[in-house]
Amino acid sequence: MATKQETQQPQVDASRDGASGGDTLSVTDNRTGKSYELEISDGTVRTMDLRQIKVDEDDFGLMGYDPAFTNTASCRSAITYIDGEAGILQHRGIPIEQLSEQSTYLELAYLLIFGELPTPAQLERWTFDVTHHTFAHEDIKKFNEGFRHDAHPMGMLLANVGALSTFYPDAKHIDDPEERYMAAIRLIAKVPTLAAWAYRHSMGLPYVYPDNELSYSENFLSMLFKMENTYKPDPRLAKALDVLFILHADHEQNCSTNAVRSVGSSGVDPYSAVAAGVAALYGPLHGGANEAVLRMLRRIETVDNIPAFLEGVKSREEKLMGFGHRVYKNYDPRARIIKKHVDEVLEATGDNPLLDIATELEKRALDDDYFTSRKLYPNVDYYSGLIYEAMGIPTDMFTVIFAIPRTSGWVAQWMEQNEDPELKIARPRQVYTGRRDVDYTPSEKREGPEKITGPPAKRPKRPRRGA
Ligand code: ACO
Would you say the CB of residue 379 lies under 6 angstroms from ligand 1? Predict the structure, then answer.
């Protein structure tokens, strides 16, 4: 069971300076009997301090081993705070509940990147700048034409975001604040356009250009669905989408953000670093859970089948998708907010029978000791897929839509990283488990099975695509 320390991120205690305040950890190396005092600062020890712990002078020194960084802080950050035990999420100190009710996605993007809420004049300028960089270069359309009609839109987005670095080569001057600002603006402005064009391509529909008279979320809906000149997005859907954008904007050092920081630490331009984030988000363990929730609800089919489904989960035949979280061991605060918007969206789009199944499934799971004892509560993805589906967005696009708001989080984290005096190229160590000092064997002296073994014989056949 997760302890408070496991789910709450270390915080900087401004009243105490770890170095001079005497917070230390005493360690005795039982191999040598020697004792060491390691400084504790902000609830952490520096693993580099372990290096002094050696068996003898030739010893490399002790390292930390932490696959998946489950207990390693990779950076200092002032952007997003999470207390998973208490179900708290704050951006720049402001609770997500207040942001989702009172702010807009673009204002939040400003807050994430610049650290403060904008003044009205700053917000006006920021909104103007983002709105007037939404057009993508015409050559991107040609680039898109190279994709097959059934190309996954996330693969297209990934390629297109990376390609932006070739359209804006000056972005490589990452120490130039103006270039950094332009890259931030361009990424936040153009990712919705690239995302919508990926969708239109997959539908065989003509691309829709951005409409600078519309709000950020209205414009995205317009680029997805516009078929005649008169298209005006339903304000209830635009509002719900804006809230979803707020809820997905940043979530501290998650897999894709870590990818952006790791790639960005090489000094590459921000488009390439953000493309790494898109690639990480593409993975089903990260961005794809809401799609899995919809598949699960469809499979359950009726409310009557819920008890049998839950029995299957409890006997570990399957998972209750959209439940559980690595960090939240309480109701994910974003799930609570999304739930409130589901009804508004369905009012605009018509009932979805899957909602009845989702609501009843949640109720029964939360009444069941199996789930509560394991601290399994709905996460952000439990209801978001229902909203996207109600809006008429196909499931392939769900992860793409996640990437749109997360772009501001990636940009904010990339900006913060580039101002970090401790920034170094990310380069983890390894525990080497292979052989050493092996002599090269000439080909004719190598022994092994005569028959060349290929891939497993039972590998399922996939239809070949093209030459
Ligand atoms: N359904 C049933 N049982 C679950 C579930 C679930 N969704 N999630 C965790 N458990 C059980 C595990 O079997 C384990 O039980 P045990 O202690 O008896 O073995 C216990 O709860 C702890 O689970 P872990 O796997 O240790 O939790 P972890 O933090 O590693 O996993 C994760 C978190 C991957 C999100 C997991 O809860 C899961 O797979 N959930 C479903 C997928 C999902 O909704 N992902 C979206 C996450 S939100 C996001 O990425 C934007």
Answer: yes
Tell me if 375 CB under 6 Å of ligand 1.
no
DSSP string, 183-201: HHHHHHHHHHHHHHHHHHH
SS3 296: helix
Distance, CA of 215 to CA of 211 (rounded, Å): 9
Cβ of 320 closer than 6 Å to ligand 1, yes or no, is yes
CA-wise closest residue to 362 among 378, 386, 384, 380: 378
Active-site positions read 286, 325, 381
Q: Of ligand 1's atoms, which has the minimum distance to the CA of residue 402?
A: 51
Please choose from 376, 380, 381, 402 the residue to mutate so as to test ligand 1's pocket, defined by most ligand atoms within 8 A of CB.
Answer: 376
DSSP for residue 24: E
Residues ≥6 apart with Cβ < 8 Å to 274: 161, 187, 260, 407, 410, 411, 414
Cβ contacts of residue 435 below 8 Å, gap of 6+?
none
Whether ligand 1 lies within 6 angstroms of the CB of 374 is answered as yes
For residues 78 and 91, give the distance between their C-alpha atoms in angstroms, rounded to a whole number: 9
For ligand 1, atom 18, the nearest C-alpha belongs to 374
Q: In angstroms, rounded to a whole number, what is the distance separating the alpha carbons of residues 410 and 28?
A: 41
Question: How many helices (H) and strands (E) are present in the chain, helices listed first?
Answer: 18, 6
Q: What is the longest distance spanned by two Cα atoms in the chain?
A: 79
Look at residue 6 and tell me whether its pLDDT is greater than 80: no
The answer to whether the beta carbons of residues 80 and 89 sit under 8 Å apart is yes
Q: What is the pLDDT of residue 429?
A: 96
| pLDDT confidence bin for 7, thresholds 50/70/90 | very low
* Average pLDDT, integer, range 438-451: 88
Q: Specify the ligand 1 atom closest to the Cα of 379.
A: 48
Q: Which residue's C-alpha comes closest to atom 29 of ligand 1?
A: 326
Query: Whose C-alpha lies nearest to ligand 1, atom 32?
Result: 325
313 lines ligand 1 (CB under 6 A): yes
pTM of the model: 0.89
In the predicted structure, residue 2 carries a pLDDT above the cut 60? no
User: Is there a contact between 137 and 271 (Cβ–Cβ < 8 Å)?
Assistant: no
Distance CA 192, CA 185 (A): 12
Q: Is the per-residue pLDDT at 81 higher than 50?
A: yes
Q: Which residues contact 418 (CB under 8 A, 6 or more apart)?
A: 174, 175, 180, 264
User: What average pLDDT does the segment 219-238 reach?
Assistant: 91
What's the start-to-end Cα distance of the chain, in Å?
52
DSSP code at position 47: G
- For atom 40 of ligand 1, which residue has the closest CA? 324
Under DSSP, is residue 139 helix (H, G, I), strand (E, B) or coil? Answer: helix
